[in-house]
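User: I need a structural model of DNA-directed RNA polymerase subunit alpha from Haemophilus influenzae for a docking pre-check later this week. Nothing fancy, just the predicted structure tokens so I can convert them on my end. Input:
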Amino acid sequence: MRRILLSSMPGCAVTEVEIDGVLHEYSSKEGVQEDILEVLLNLKGLAVKVQNKDDVILTLNKSGIGPVVAADITHDGDVEIVNPDHVICHLN
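Assistant: Understood. Predicted structure tokens for DNA-directed RNA polymerase subunit alpha:
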């Protein structure tokens, strides 16, 4: 019963991440305080609402020192970031 309920619940989540210069999740990125695995776990905590689409591509470009939050993600009008204050990583 539980499998049936979970498989029929509508919703969306981050399913794929591409980071320039990163080959696997156990590496690190220069200028990012957290390791890539922690960044990926933080991205899984992102709450997103998508209207009228099955798949969307979100883009994140940020430079400078400080936190990177969900509000920094660029998206089209069919996407709503529910938790814009969610911290993804810190740049140093």
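Before docking, keep this in mind: The first helix runs from residue 2 to 7.
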